[in-house]
Amino acid sequence: MNLRAADASDLDAIMTLERASFPTDAWSEAMMREELASRHGWYVVAEEAGMLAGYAGLRAPRGAKDADIQTITIAEPFRGRGRGRMLLRALLAEADRRGVREVFLEVRADNPVAQALYASEGFTEVGRRPRYYQPDDVDAVVMRLELSTWAAARATAPSEDRTQVGGFTADAPTSGASSDLGAAGQGLRPLGEGAPACDVGTGWCT
Questions:
Q1: Average pLDDT of 90-103?
Q2: Given strand 2-5, what is the order of strands in its sheet?
Q3: Does residue 192 register a pLDDT over 50?
């Protein structure tokens, strides 16, 4: 699998996967285009066998000390192989390069596999948003990571656990159930104003 920074030329492929993964609440093409172009964000795509296997996004304004994982989405044929962990680590590596201290994300309370993945990377629960995910009445679990601790752990990772991402080094996925995002395998979503609601539907919104 090849990881690289996303750009405007990836918009069509990203939107195809976005709509397939989130049929009821996909981001609009205009929103995704703005995300890809924003200097406050950073998106990465994973390619395999000539296909878009997944994408992920980070919101980390330059100079800010905290960042948010915006989305992690894996195409169905590539789920359950540690791709979610690979994308997550690529985002965290970029946050570290930007001088971020803390990274936040939200995950559905009924997605224990995704929660286990994030916990295995050092995220801890810091709060909940009751009944946030509608129409399912599912809580959002807010999680936080101290990035310096994560970066120190990654610095001592064995060389075979590392991969090149668009010219920089990030960590490769590890095997096992904890490296997947859940039965349907995708996606972090922001809780900010204007963010689409998340639906279990065909995919987890984590």
A1: 95
A2: 124-133, 138-146, 102-108, 66-74, 51-59, 41-48, 2-5, 162-165, 168-171
A3: no
Q: How confident is the model at residue 85 (pLDDT cuts 50, 70, 90)?
A: very high
What's the pLDDT tens digit per position in 140-169?
999 999 999 999 988 887 654 554 444 444
